[in-house]
Design brief:
Structural class: mainly alpha
Mean pLDDT: 79
Number of domains: 1
Largest sheet: none
Oligomer: single chain
Shape: rod-shaped
Helix content: over 70%
């Protein structure tokens, strides 16, 4: 159980990072906010 939970939490963390990166690149590409870094 611990191993499965650890793997799921790591995958979830990676997913959040990828999602945040995609959102930032989308906002940057569409110039929704000029001050987004």
């Amino acid at each position: 159980n611990y191993t499965t939970t650890g793997i799921l939490s790591v995958l979830a963390a990676k997913g959040d990072v990828e999602r945040g990166r995609k959102i930032r690149s989308y906002v940057r590409d569409h110039s929704l906010q000029d001050d987004v870094v």
